[in-house]
Specification:
Helix content: 25-40%
Distance between the termini: 23 Å
Radius of gyration: 12 Å
Order of helices and strands: HEHHEHEE
Strand content: 5-15%
Shape: globular
CATH topology: Arc Repressor Mutant, subunit A
CATH superfamily: Winged helix-like DNA-binding domain superfamily/Winged helix DNA-binding domain
Number of helices: 4
Number of strands: 4
DNA sequence: GTGCTGACAAACG
DNA sequence: CCGTTTGCCAGCA
């Protein structure tokens, strides 16, 4: 089991309508200090991935992409389509796994 | 091998 | 609230 596989595994188990932070996701996969690498994985995900990458936000409850970028808009839309309220660019919902 | 980068995070001031 | 500093570590040149 490598890091990537574990992260994918945990990510795929995030329930609909929930969010996780990068750090929480890494910890849950058994890698306490790899929050940054989660971001790297998400960045490398193919456009057509089935994984709920949009459920991953930073510890501030915000989308960790430059505002106005395609990714930002994409993620924000997906989150709202799951019923996750976003106030002032912040996720107004408790994290799953932390 | 070295040095820099980064979809992070916590601790400060 | 904001900006800075520090710790972290897999990729990449």
């Amino acid at each position: 089991m490598n890091f990537d596989h574990m992260i994918y595994s945990v990510l795929s188990q995030i329930p609909f309508g929930h969010t996780v932070s990068y750090g929480a996701l890494a910890r849950s996969a058994g890698f306490p200090n790899h929050s940054r690498h989660v971001g790297r994985l998400l960045k490398n995900l193919p456009k057509d991935t089935q994984l709920p990458w949009h459920r991953v936000v930073n510890s501030q409850g915000k989308i960790s992409l430059p505002q106005g970028s395609d990714g930002y808009t994409e993620q924000r839309q997906r989150l709202q389509s799951e019923g996750i309220p976003i106030i002032n660019d912040k996720i107004n919902k408790p994290y799953f796994l932390g």
